[in-house]
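Lab notes, practical 5.
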Amino acid sequence: MTQVFFYHGAADKIAAACALLSGAYAKKKPMLVFAPEKEIANSVDRMLWTQPALSFVPHCRADSPLAAETPILITDSLETLPQDERLMNLSQIVPPGFSRFQSLIEVVGQADDERAAARDRVKFYKDRGYEVRYFDLSER
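Output from the prediction step:
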């Protein structure tokens, strides 16, 4: 069964997501980032090029010719999956087919609409028997 992790209360959702992605890369763990909103996908892409200042997190779009050899992939569709280990959800919906992944990482900011959508997703997962683990980012 998919493990579900909620990182909530992030002052900057994109920065928090990129920090988690950087950590995953450092541990050699591939990650697929579901970001169907173009603005969010572009922000993640841009931040991974520049942060942290003294390192680089290899990433690309899932439809890139380099996707097969890149550990962090950004996608707006989960129809074809280059990997099924870890999925990071940066949308406000339940990712379609999330149960194919070993882990689902949800990153939630502090905006009221994000928090409300996250509560709906938590309910969705719990109603289907998934255990949800929480990590509070508001204190960081």
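Observations recorded by the TA: Strands lie at 3-10, 31-34, 59-61, 72-75, 86-89, 103-109, 132-136. The mean pLDDT is 93.
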